[in-house]
Amino acid sequence: MVFHANPVIRKTNLAAWRAWRTFTSGLHSSAVGLSSGPGATDRSEELSAVSSEKPPHAPVMVKEVLHYLDIQPAQVVLDMTFGGGGHTKAILNTIPEATVLALDRDPTAVSLAQQLAKEHSGRVKPLLGRFSELEALLSNMNIKPGSIDAVLLDAGCSSMQLDQAERGFSLSKDGPLDMRMDGDGYPDMPCAADVVNTLDQQALASILFAYGEERHSRKIASAIVEARRVNPITRTQQLASVVAGAFPAAVIYARKDRLHRPAHVATKTFQALRIFVNDELNELHAGLRAAQDALKAGGRLCVITFHSLEDRLVKRFLQGDDLSNLDQYHFGPKKQEGRKKKLEGEKRDAKSVHWLPLRRKVITPEKDDVRENPRGRSSKLRAAQRL
After folding, report:
1. What are phi and psi for residue 225, nearest 5 degrees?
2. What letter would DSSP give residue 132?
3. Which of 176, 196, 173 is CA-nearest to residue 277?
4. Other C-beta atoms within 10 Å of 118: how many?
5. Count of H helices and E strands in the chain?
């Protein structure tokens, strides 16, 4: 398994990386079972009413995606994150004879794509794999670089994954602490339970700070280490309770989301673990490079992100920045902010040789869309044309 292959990310999270190497070397002999420990019995009672939203598989900013991709009849589109298939269905129903290559790393999503392929004969080509595997997948289909007309990349966790308690992504639904987007596709890939029960306190704090932008990373890491000394942490709500226990009761829902609703104090912890387990930022960077290679000149790219780490990466990539040093955009402490702004100022007038932005500012969902699909409230869309 290639895990955090970028050397700068390894350097930035040195404590996590050293602990990770020690951990993976003994994974098979000391893995923590997802069904062990307290709370292993299934229960549907939610931790709290974190949100009142329905669990639809509603795609985000469909109108905007269709507008900026500007797909023409009979063109070939690459949907790099098929998920529940919402965007692909909109393309099939709107654009006559368009063909969609439907990629996803989640076997469940690919099964849905296979079903959709049966309903739209010859127009949907399901692909199982990660962004970093896309080049090989397209090559196996005899699809040459520079031959795709439009690409959509909808990053992050899908509603389908959040709604299935057994996947372990949601802190409001009790399930095994898994969080692997690939499911069991990579048996050697550690899950979130392995991470929280194996890495040392310094490594855990580093992960929470880097990938969750969690101010209280050290406090939370300390609480996790103390709790696992009593019993392994193997359930989602068990972890949420451990994190909540590190704070006074009044603080647990003191944070607010973008709709000013209470957000659980463990939300950023879950985000950080999910990103770390799935190597999401490196995969996103690999996906952007793959999209750049796959698109023909004049082809269009739309990227939807859901948190600042993803959006900053996409923004810099489309500006043509050198992302071999990813940490300067994602993992630097606040004291480096001045240096980062200086670097940005030097590049402000530089233009990418690969991309022409279709809109200067980031695109966000309309208020009506957010009311209809609250899970898309934090989404951001960037669109560009391949030069």
Report:
1. -65, -40
2. G
3. 196
4. 8
5. 18, 9
Per-residue pLDDT of the chain (387 residues; tens, 9 = 90+): 333 443 334 433 555 555 555 555 555 444 454 533 333 333 233 323 323 334 446 799 999 999 999 999 999 999 999 999 999 999 999 999 999 999 999 999 999 999 999 999 999 999 999 999 999 999 999 999 999 999 999 997 887 888 889 999 988 889 999 999 998 888 788 999 999 999 999 999 999 999 999 999 999 999 999 999 999 999 999 999 999 999 887 666 666 655 566 778 999 999 999 999 999 999 999 999 999 999 999 999 999 999 999 999 999 999 999 887 665 555 444 444 555 555 555 555 557 899 999 999 999 999 888 888 887 888 999 999 999
Structure tokens at 369: 């869309």
Alpha carbon 71 to chain centroid, angstroms: 25
Q: Which has the closest alpha carbon to 108: 176, 183, 54, 165?
A: 183
Span between the terminal Cα atoms of the chain, in Å? 34
Angstrom CA distances, 234 to 3, 33, 60, 279, stand at: 22, 7, 32, 21
What the block records as the tokens of 18 is: 């050293």
Q: How far apart are CA 138 and CA 144, in angstroms?
A: 7
Among residues 212, 197, 206, the alpha carbon closest in space to that of 272 is found at 212
Amino acid found at 224:
I
Measured in degrees and rounded to the nearest 5, phi and psi for residue 96 equal: -60, 130
Q: How far apart are CA 333 and CA 269, in angstroms?
A: 18
Phi, psi at residue 254, to the nearest 5°?
-70, -30
Contact yes or no for 353/339 (Cβ under 8 A): no
d(CA 382, CA 304): 7
